[in-house]
Amino acid sequence: MTARRRPATATSRKPRRAPRPIRREPRDGERKRDTTRRVLLERALALFQNRGVEATTMRDIARAAGLSLGAAYYYFPSKEALVFAFYEENQAAIELTAARADGTVRERLGRVLHAKLDSIRPHRAMLAAIIQRLVDPGDPLGAFSTQTGAVRQRAIAIFARALEGTGLPPETVTVTAHALWLLQLACMLVFVHDNSPDGARTHGLVDDGLDLLVPLLPLLGTPAGQAICERVIGALGRAGMVIAPAP
After folding, report:
1. Architecture of domain 84-238
2. Which stretches of the chain drop beneath a pLDDT of 50?
3. What is the CATH code of the structural domain delimited by 19-77?
4. In the chain, fewer beta carbons within 10 Å around the N or the C end?
5. How far, in Å, CA of 48 to CA of 119, rounded?
C-alpha cells in the first residue's frame, strides 16, 4: 500500500528566496534616490529589450533592481512612466550631440539624424515591440500623442536650430523642422527592423533624404516657397493638425 504524501506544513515548506541585493553604486555627484531611479530604469529597459514591454511586469522590474514592488512604484507609477523616462533621457543625449555639431547645415543635420539611430540601437527590440503604439496618436506612448508633446517639440527645436544661418523665414523654418522630424521618425521605424550590418540600410536612407531635402532649402526661401509653406500650415491647421512655431 502506497504511503500517503503528507501535506506541506509551515515548517516543511521551503522559504521563498528573497531577491538578491543589487549593488547600486552612485555615479559622481549622484544622489542616492537618483541612483536608485537610474538602476530601475536600466533594469526595466533590459527587460523590455529581452521580453517586450507588454510581457514585463512592474514586479519583474522591481525584482531585477533588488527593490520591493512598492519602492519601484514610488519612482515610476507604471511601465509607461519608464518608457517616458527613456524618451526624455534619449532626447537629452541627442540635444548634447546637437549642441556639439558644427559644419554646414547638411553636416549638422546628418550628425543629429545618424546619432539618433545610434542612440536607439541598444533598444531596437523594445521599440519594435511597441511600434503599433508609437504610430497611434491616441496612445500615450505614441509619437504624436499629447503626452509626448514636450519631447516632440524639443526634437523639432533641434532641427530648427540646425537651420540657423540659412536665412529662411520663420514660417519656412517651422515647416522644414517638422518635415525633418518626420524624416527622423520614418527612419527610426525602418531602423528597428533593419538587419543590415550596423543598420547601414537605414543610415543610407538618412543620407539620401538629406541629399534630396537640403538642396531645396534655398527654394523654400523664395516667395513661391514661402507661399507653399503657408499653404501647408493652413491645410494642416484646417485638418486639426496645428504646427506650432519651432521653439
Report:
1. Orthogonal Bundle (1.10)
2. 1-22
3. 1.10.10.60
4. N
5. 16
